[in-house]
Amino acid sequence: MHAASFVALATFRESVRDRVFYNLVLFAVLLVAASLLIGQLTAGQDVKIIKDLSLAATSLFGLCIAIVVGIGLVSKEVDRRSVYPLLAKPVRRSELIVGKYLGLLLTLLVNVAVMTAAIYLVLFYLARGVPPNIQQAWDAPALDPALLKAIALIYLELATVTAVALFFSSYSSPLLSAIFTLGIYVIGQFNADLKQFDRIVNAPAAVALAKGLYYLLPDFARFDVKLAVVHGQPVPVAYVAATAAYALLYIAALVCGAAALFARRDFK
Amino acid sequence: MQAAIRTRDLTKDFAVGFWRKRPYRALDRLSIDVAPGDVFGFLGPNGAGKTTTLKLLMQLIFPSSGEAEILGRPAGDIAVRRRIGYLPENPYFYDHLTAEELLDYYGRLFRIAGGERGRRVSAILDRLGIGAERRLQLRRFSKGMLQRVGLAQTLLNDPEVIFLDEPMSGLDPLGRRDVRNLILELRDQGRTIFFSSHILSDAEVLCSRVAILVKGQLAAQGTIADLQAFHVRGWELIVHGVEDSIVQRLRGRARRITRIEGARYAIELGTESRPEQILTELIADGASLVSLNPLRDTLEDLFVRRVAEVGDAARAEGGHARG
Predict the structure, then answer these.
(1) CA distances from A234 to A138, A144, A221, A231, A241 (A)
(2) Per the CB < 8 Å rule, is B58 touching A3?
(3) DSSP secondary structure string for all residues of A8-27
(4) Same domain for B89 and B109?
(5) Quick check: B110 and A18 CB within 8 A?
(6) What is the DSSP letter of B98?
């Protein structure tokens, strides 16, 4: 797996140069504009709204990168035939898949880290002039460390979406991969409902099918603790850890699946 | 002696068609042996199966049946990949990496240590004539420059066997001359070179052995001299001091007689003629010999004939099948 780390670094370098981080500029502009606007319009609620908005924006911007770049990871290599000279080197196909995935994870990590810093900076700026007695009335402090839990789970969600994109793009066209990944992402938001299908449907076969789909498809709702964090409700560390374990297991299965599909693929 | 490259009954079928898939045989039971140190030309018209063969050897695609070995190990073996270089047809790399960074990346994959890697990258880029451009991103490179980068990455690991898929493709005359010289230099260093091409003049200059592939089938294989020697199609006799009366006398026995200048003539004889006898007669009549050469097929003649033969055979087979 030594080769995978070199592939990862090259992937990271390529995505940085491919202006993946331009979205950060858009994110910063959005955040600053929103905070200025909301500061004018609302009284006392601005910190909460900014937290809500910035976490949603982190998730959305990250999702765009995860899907667009994630799908291009393998399909671009294959379509442009840069995979030909690469696979003639001492690199296993599985190492290529793992390396590409890790490269994008690194890109996402830098992206999310910069966004996090921007969020804390804006929150610091907003809280600066507010008297302590008003701050005490807030659901959670402006620079609440619990925000990091929400951001960590957003990152894990993005890592899972990337793995889904990688899985589909290891054998399918970019367009189909985008449709499948987006489809899985949307279904994954409502996946928890499948678990409780027996409450609304009586047919055992349909219930069994729904349960099967629940375990097969990712449960993206698990990763969303944005509302709880913004409203100062506790998010137990155990919950974060369990969700991380769930994500890692799911990612491992998807990356192994992608590697297995890619291993037998003919590059015509 | 162990072959550098060996294939046995190597076959590749692709499924074609959108709704009803049907098999299409791109390569049909290819068996070749390439000895170490050979410059082996893999020739054929477009669509003959040359790139398919190279992809099979690189394990970019998998054979339907048959086997391929490089340096005595199965093609695709990781240990073998450390000892080979491969230039794909119309190579494409990463737009946003520079030539230097690309080679550094590949050098890491070969586990070439830091200092040595830097020296090697620099020396190879110098050898391929890539100067200050090495620090430009590859998206700014012309097709010819990309081809040079492709060749550079092929040599990075000091390979024993080098596979080149249409290495002259997209190069201007100067670039082609450089690549020809590079191949000759690599040959002199004792490396095995397997290159596919449809440019026969390059093969004629460079190759010790060739194989001609037509419609996925091996149509001919051997040294260029062997392949051409089978097809001596006459003799060309150039003589000086020949009088017109002698020329008239020879007209019935020669295929063609051309005056070069003055009393110097080129006399083309058929294979049925005995050049020694005619030469003796001419010398007895006071002519002097300038040269006597067998007229052999060029590689192009051989190539065109084999392609036509395979086409005829396929049509005949189709006719029988229909009948």
Answers:
(1) 15, 12, 17, 9, 14
(2) no
(3) HHHHHHHHHHTTTTHHHHHH
(4) yes
(5) no
(6) B
Q: What pLDDT, on the 0 to 100 scale, is given for residue A154?
A: 95
Q: Would you kindly state where each structural domain of chain A is located, as residue ranges?
A: 2-263
For residue A266, what is the nearest residue in chain B, using CA coordinates?
B61
Burial A39-56 (b: 16+ CB within 10 A, else e): eeeeeeebbbbbbbbbbe
**What is the predicted pLDDT for the residue at B323?**
40
Helix or strand or coil: residue B235?
Answer: strand
Q: DSSP for A216-249? A: HS--GGGG--HHHHHTT----HHHHHHHHHHHHH
What pLDDT is attached to residue B303? 75
Chain B nearest-CA distance from A156, in A, is 28
Residues B98, B218 share a domain: yes
Q: Do B61 and A266 touch (CB under 8 A)?
A: yes
**A-B Cβ pairs (cutoff 8 Å, strict):** 80
The answer as to whether B310 is a domain residue is no
Mutation for testing the A interface, residue in B13, B18, B84, B92 having most A CBs under 10 Å: B92
Provide the number of structural domains found in chain B.
2
Cross-chain Cβ contact B110/A267 below 8 Å: no
On whether ipTM exceeds 0.85, the answer is no
Cross-strand partners of B210: B41, B222
The range of the structural domain enclosing residue B191 comes to: 5-228
Pseudo-torsion of CA A86, A91, A92, A98, nearest 10°?
A: -80
> Does residue B177 share a domain with residue B96?
yes
Please indicate, yes or no, if residue B322 is contained in any of the structural domains.
no
Stretch A140-160: mean pLDDT, rounded? 90
Q: Do B204 and B269 fall into the same domain?
A: no
pLDDT tens digit string along A14-57?
Answer: 888 877 777 777 877 887 788 778 767 766 667 888 888 888 88
Are B53 and B127 contained in the same domain?
Answer: yes
Report pLDDT for A83: 93
Q: What is the pLDDT of residue A237?
A: 93
Classify residue B210: in a domain, yes or no.
Answer: yes
Nearest to B105 among A6, A87, A268 (CB): A6
pLDDT along chain B (323 residues), means of 10: 92 85 90 94 89 96 96 93 94 90 95 93 93 91 91 95 90 87 93 89 85 89 75 85 86 88 90 86 90 78 76 69 45
Query: What is the least distance, in Å, from the CA of B312 to any CA of chain A?
Result: 28
* Residue A99 vs residue A58, higher pLDDT: A99
